[in-house]
Amino acid sequence: MNTALNRGQLESLLLGILTAGPAHGYEIISALKDRSDGAFDLPEGTVYPVLHRLEREQLLASEWEDSGGRKRRVYRITAAGETNLQQAKEHWRGHVRSVNLILGVQS
pTM for this one? Predict the structure, then answer.
């Protein structure tokens, strides 16, 4: 399966992961892999820049937490991120519907 993602899709997937609750980067990467049945096994170098961009765009917020003597940044989705995700879902549904119509896929 071709799992190439464009920028908007990865942003939406990360926002979707964070609807389950706050998480640090490694948890986000693991959840992305697990929830996609291994299809989206992305390296840190791909995920962290997107998390930082989403934070700059105020779609995510983060804070440092101590965990067993280690500091790690924990991300959470903001209200603006929730709105953005809902819009992305609507767009995705329309896209899938259009592709299904062209390919003759029954939904």
Answer: 0.88
